[in-house]
Design brief:
mainly beta, OB fold (Dihydrolipoamide Acetyltransferase, E2P), three-stranded antiparallel sheet
Length: 135
């Protein structure tokens, strides 16, 4: 699948996250000293500045925290991809991730609905999107 929309550019810190997505797995960081998962990828644990972050796999299931329906393109590259359904999902593991909803009609979206990951391979990167769990 080829896509003309801008794509993320992995950094040295975020590379393990993107490498795992390419394998259709989700790796996020965990801080043993804080006892919690952390996202977005970083070098130090938020709040404590501990340098004990390690990568752990999660299943990616979660709950829809918020969303919007964009019926007008947010920029020219999105003009053929309407409506856009940007969203924030709260993973069962704790952190929240910005994403896009797929395989759902705007009228069927509900805050609090259970969602599961969808791995979208685009060119040389895999994007993490979400669909309702009951689909």
């Amino acid at each position: 699948m080829s896509d003309q929309r801008p794509l993320p550019e992995p950094t040295p810190v975020s590379q393990p996250f993107w490498d795992a997505l390419r394998e259709h797995r989700i790796l996020i960081q965990y801080s043993p000293s804080a006892g919690k998962y952390v996202f977005y990828p970083r070098t130090l644990t938020p709040g404590t500045f501990a340098d004990d972050l390690e990568w752990r796999e999660i299943d990616g299931a979660g709950t829809l925290y918020t969303y919007t329906v964009a019926r007008r393109p947010t920029g020219p590259p999105w003009s053929d991809h309407l409506p856009q359904l940007p969203a924030v999902v709260e993973w069962n593991a704790g952190p929240r991730v910005s994403t896009e909803l797929v395989d759902v009609a705007p009228d069927d979206i509900r805050i609090g609905m259970r969602v599961v990951p969808v791995f979208c391979d685009v060119d040389d990167i895999t994007l993490l999107r979400y669909r309702p769990a009951d689909v």
